[in-house]
Amino acid sequence: MWLKPEEVLLKNALKLWVTERSNDYFVLQRRRGYGEGSSALTGLLVGTLDTVLDSTAKVAPYRILHQTPDSQVYWTVACGASLEEISQHWDWLQINIMRTLSVFDSGDDITSFVQGKIRGLIAEEGKGAPDTQEQERFREAVLRFEHLFGLPRQEKLVTYYSCSYWRGRVPNQGWMYLSTHFLCFYSYLLGNEVKLALPWDEVSRLERASSVLLTESIRVCVRGEEHYFSMLLHLQQTYLLMQQLAAYAVTRLFDKETFDADHPLSDPPRITQRALEVHARNQAFRAFFRLPCEENLCEVYESFLWLPFSHHNTLGKICVSERYLCFASQDGSQCHLILPLREVVAVELVDPGSRALSVSVRGKRGFRFSEVRDFERLAATIRRKCVPSTSPQHSAVTQLPLCDDEEEMMVGQKKAVSTEALMNVFHPHDTENLDPKMLKERMKEQLWQIHFAEYGRGSGMFCTKKTRDLVVRGIPETLRGELWMLFSGAVNDMAVHPGYYTSLLEECMGSSSLACDEIERDLHRSLPEHPAFQTDTGISALRRVLTAYAYRNPKIGYCQAMNILTSVLLLYAKEEEAFWLLVAVCERMLPDYFNRRIIGALVDQAVFEELIRDHLTQLTDHMSDLSFFSSVSLSWFLTLFISVLPIESAVNVVDCFFYDGIRAVLQLALAVLHHNVDSLLCCSDDAEAVTILNRFFDSVTNKDSPLPATVQQATGDRSAQPTVDITDLIREAYENFGNIQWEEVESMRKRNKLYVVQTLEETTKQNVLRVIAQDVKFSATQLEELYWLFKRQHFISCYWNQSSSTLLNHDPSLPYLDQYQLGHGQFCSLFSLLLPWGNSPPSNTHTSFCLADQNEDGLINFREFICALDVLYNGSFTEKLKFLFKLHLQPGRGKFDLQEYLKQWQDELQKKDDNIKHLPRINQTQFICLSKTLYSVFHGDEEEEHLYCAVARVTSLLLRMEEVGRKLQENSPTKTPPTTTSPTGTHSSTLDTPSDTPGDPPSPAAGGDWSFSFEQILASLLNEPTVVRFFEQTVDADTLIEYARSAQLRDARTHVK
């Protein structure tokens, strides 16, 4: 165990310790009298001495001391009861500490670092203490977290770890705090304080790394800066948790289309480490067994499963959810099994001695599990969950006939729902055909029938290596729909939702939406060469499936490529089955593919690039930029190669996809590049490479396809070029790249999603800045920093508020300028931090918000924000004064059209004109407020006294001018409205602000108020050099932006309630 470092003055005190291992910084010692080679007399003497010196404790026989070459003082850092135990600590120090210590210059620094690290490890181990102690330590950590980083109390600390943060080549030992929205680190060592608060939504890279200096570390990239954390006691556990938190933040804040409001982690304050671990486990469970999204892993048992086809037991794990019992082997046999509990008819305890139980399902089939540690509990669980359902059941083998209502179902026209796969209608299976291709097709069918007899059919079929081998050969035409349903898990969706598709069609019948318009546009572009989609039968079925899915999932609606995929599904599956296959593909097997930003497809492109670097190094060496392969292969992934291969070849790819998921597509894509690697290495440009790949796809055939020539897609004259059989190509893909594991692909997906999302965000930023840079005078760097501040302010409003208006209004499909917007409170907070005059009254920020809100939706986009700020930072004296003048133009006692004024102000912001003649006059109350604002703006300036005097002189001058105007009006014999002459010589009427009483002369004398025009105020202030100099002095934008960055989170704490 690790020990709190304590001094030991004499390394071999009384010669009671023997050195077993040593290096420059650590010594492993054994207590004399213990271990091999120790005499009984020595052990007796040492034991007696231990008893005399300390009768209440037993000295551990092994220990590790820390030393430095230039010191005679040693420190105990670990002890152990056995050599094995102490060796684990020694090895950990060798791997994680030794290389690091070489970067320190002095022995004191080394000792301080080691002591801090050991104390952190002790605290880390203490987290596994009894619940009361652990809770107390966690509460203390929460208090430290809140005190150190100043975040609102709503920011939930998930967990904390002892680690080292690397600043250059020097490690800083401290604590890492992982909260729902921030990765934080704090260290204070030798007077050097390090404090970090990195938002998860700004993380672009999160991965494990290693180097000569850092054996193992976690690399975090935020806005181009790299941060390294190492010396974690449980590095992999920490890394996975960080990955989950980053993925959660990205999905919730950026990818709202795919974030479910009922998500188990939808409420940030309720997120805990346990909840994250459970959620990750459930996701992996559902993905591996292709189960519906509502399934959660309830219990796990280790057991043996009897395999009747090979007559032996295979070791694996039983996973039980609400409605399924699943088994996955762990001995390399690649056998897995899925038993819907609705199919279970009996559970028996067959052999208590071997802890075995038998599970019987419909069809007189049984499964024997043995060596189950708690087999009685498992049996009770299965009995409780397999209560027979009264709802009709569907299976992959039998299909209930449609009811009368379903037969009459139609969408837009009177066409019955198709109850047959389109291939059976347009190309029925001819059992008497003796064509060689048909004979091969029958042989395939016979092989599958033999497989069904040995391994089972439908739900409960054993899936093994032999099953994959048959899939690689190509599934027979007559079995394709059934096996697609089984392998994808769609058969379970349809079974637990009987009648769902029919009711969905009833609800969406006759509906009109943007998705429906897009579907109609693409209907006749879906496999137009196939006879099934040259008639109303196929087109109507395609319309119904796509419309029903768009109605079911409006977040996705309809996206291009869905029509091509659905067309192929309808060829081999009945209409309702095709619908559930589409659900399985869009919502489970290809997550995030079919949305506006196709994030899932882009993520898999990044995974593809990574696999190219690992498996096709010759291409990597030849091409520095692999993004070309990502762009050219996008259609391969979106359509599962259907868009680039003839239909008779593409269906074999779809076979493998439904069995192995995206891994099969990645393997085939690598095989395509591998097959053409020599030609690609000789390419001089991208266009030539595209030509080579297109020519290759044209040469791919399916020599065993039983489809007639009228159904097959012609790809030109193949006689002049060698052909490649699709079966051989797929087999080559599995042979060369079959070592790619499902877990590896999922890990790469998670790792690359952060990069893909941040790349899209970077594109959005560049587009916004490119448009706005033309209208403002900020530098490119300042504009970028202001954009980050604006964006962070947007997210701060979303961090701790699940129903934030800005989060609900965030839509990635909106124009770039409108994707991020601020509400009133968020705008006022950020605007106040960035004001060049820090003492402006709060009411002014409120008025600024009203003026900047052009469309009156209560939200401010970045253009509106930056244009207002640009006036204060880079505007002329006149523009700044006009801005302040307008801030105080609120509806007064006279008749005043605020909406008309706001429209005028917005037009001026767009036109950038200097028209000041048509501004409304400012009344008495408003002028007083303007004067107070000027006083507050001037407060703290070096010339504060002179500025105050200047404002007083201007105010006195304007009042005297108004008095003269009043006297002239009183002495005038006529009732015509008088005019006053401004110091600039411009005549301005005093009746611009009429009284409240309709029909009364709008005379200022009637109400006793006075007013001024903007021209009068401007001309008066132009005569005061100190005021002009104050407003025309250069604003230090960089300093203000840096201040806002440091104060933004602190300011958020005061506003979050």
Automatic annotation (TrEMBL):
Region of interest (Disordered), ranges: 966-1008
One GO MF term: GTPase activator activity
Rab-GAP TBC domain location: 474-661
Domain EF-hand: 849-875
Pfam families cross-referenced by the UniProt entry: GRAM, RabGAP-TBC
Annotated localization: Cytoplasm, Cytosol
PROSITE patterns to which the protein is assigned, alphabetical: EF_HAND_1 (PS00018), EF_HAND_2 (PS50222), TBC_RABGAP (PS50086)
GO CC terms of this entry: cytosol
GO biological process assignments: glomerular filtration
Composition-biased stretches (Low complexity): 972-998
Keywords: Calcium, Cytoplasm, GTPase activation, Metal-binding, Repeat
Domain of life: Eukaryota
Stored SUPFAM superfamilies: EF-hand, Ypt/Rab-GAP domain of gyp1p
Protein name, entry field: TBC1 domain family member 8B
High-level lineage: Eukaryota, Metazoa, Chordata, Craniata, Vertebrata
